[in-house]
Amino acid sequence: MTAEQIKNVEQTLKELKEINMRYTLYGNGYEVASIKEATEVTVTSNDFYDFNIKTIKIPKKKPFTKDYVLEKMYPLKKEYENHSELFNKLSDYMGLKSLYGASYGLAFDGLFRKREEVFKLKDEVIKKLNDLGIKATFSFSDAMWVLQIKISKSEKNIARIQKIIASKRVA
To answer: Buried b / exposed e across 118-133, counting CB within 10 Å, b at 16+?
Structure first.
């Protein structure tokens, strides 16, 4: 591998780590410690709802990018992007400080809260999202500790959220 390819692979692995993906380097069928020796990478997603493992050859001519890896892992899922930062901004825009962004949408930790408080917040979030025209579904974690607001990652929905957040900056 050239120095430029090594730098490219290092950058891509760093970006994958930032979106909660783990990786293992392999060369000639064996795990290797050095990027220089690597010919392929096994990437593991840490998403509880969409766990995936894929071994991907490091291309010799094409750039090895985060998008390249995600297209190999999720060939039909162009929307697999971690939008948690965008969802954090949406939470701030909605003025609900108890919500936080997650890879699937918004979440609310209800562990030490009264049940009525959690359901009241759920109703408030449903109303605000409907008023904004944002598509989402609602569920609870298995132990009902976390209210999960799963926001649709369709291009139309994400564009709508970006527009809403951008309009606040102007105002």
So the answer is: beebbeebeeebeeee
